[in-house]
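Protein data sheet
==================
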Amino acid sequence: MTQLLSRASALLWVTSLVLLVTAPGARAADSFSSGRYLPAGPVALGGGRLSWAEYRSDGGFNLRSAQQRAVTLRRRPNRDPRILFTLRLVGSPQGVFSIEGLSPSKPSDDDLPGQVYGDFLTSFSGAVTRVAPRCGGSGNADFDGGVMVVRSCDAMIEVRRVGQSGSSLIRRVPETGIPPSSHYRIAGRYVAYRTSVDRTGAPSGDDVVIYDWQAGRELYRVAVPAPQLADLDLQADGKVAFSFIDPSVSARAARMQVAWASPQDPTAHKLPLAPVGSYRVKLDRDRLFFLASSTRFAPAELGDLGVTSLAGASRVLARRVIDGVFDVEADRVAYAVRTCRGPRAVRQSFAAPTAVGSTRKRCPLRLSGRLRGDRRQRVIVAKLSCLGLARDCTADRLRVVLRRRGRVQTLATARYRRGRARLRARLTRRGARLLRGRRRLRITVVARVSDSAVGADRTRRTSATLTPSR
């Protein structure tokens, strides 16, 4: 009897554990809308939250964050919609660190002429602090544990402590020959960066230097196996991972490979990952996460997000995600996917089954707002949605048709208009007669849409109720 009770208690404990692990609050993945446009900016995990940039119709962006539901931390309108962007987001318990770029066409009260980068810390309560001096040049910076690394206005690497009123200098790295496009990463007491000179100052190939900013000395450096470094990430114990362009793999097109090094073994260890056009890398708890895509030069391309051990055992976590946009924290990954209603930022458990992003290239035609007929001006006014796959899409040969007595009759037509603009389709004579005396009319809108994210597309159609004006 005692043994039976013990087994029952053990079974109850195991059942409780299973229920705890699979509780409704512990979801394997959740996603949030990231606006109408393809996110060129990154996503970030930190402080138990998912954060992302949601781009606005005026060319600015909103900084959004979600734990259980999405909230707007900061609204960033733009006077010149062509040139405001985010280069990097880093999540942390203190808030979201962002690197933002702006090249205004004329001086203003807030921005200087020329290429300008700003580094900001936005708390989860919405308070915004500019944490680095404003100057031109490189927009590279990184943030970890209240400390940031940034390229100074005189082209030196600075380690700065971030506070509520800004940042204060801790140490300048005594290094010359650092390219303006160098990657900077900080984790714990170490900083990693790319340099093109050796220890004597003589020009060399790309090296990755790991610098102990607390002790004020170089910990080690590793030579990149091929001429050009592509991406870089650093772990708090000094391990570093990087991707590099290896021209020896293919003579026809550049291909990237991935390697890592450590303070105990400061040599590049290539991982057995297939050479592809692009690799983004992140290192966390001796796990190397990568986003592999077929091309280096198209941020709208899709890639596969995976993880590998440093010994080379790898698996794919998500397929067909937006290239270059992902982050890692503890047992979760974040990335962005396309949908027909716009891009979405996704937060997924590391242990979840492989997710597959949308591959639909023929999203249904959508109207933004009501379809309205104007008898006096003899037009039908419609506003097409841009389908969410790209910021710039084109509607060509728009027609408004009515199926009546088994026949399709054209009410109005329009030629070549930019997506998201209000379209004014000219009424035909028959269309003007059919609208006379009617308050509502069920019609079909037909358009041939070309989307720059997926190329030319076939004719799409949607049904709508037309409300003629008096």
Remarks:
- The CA atoms of residues 270 and 361 lie 36 Å apart.
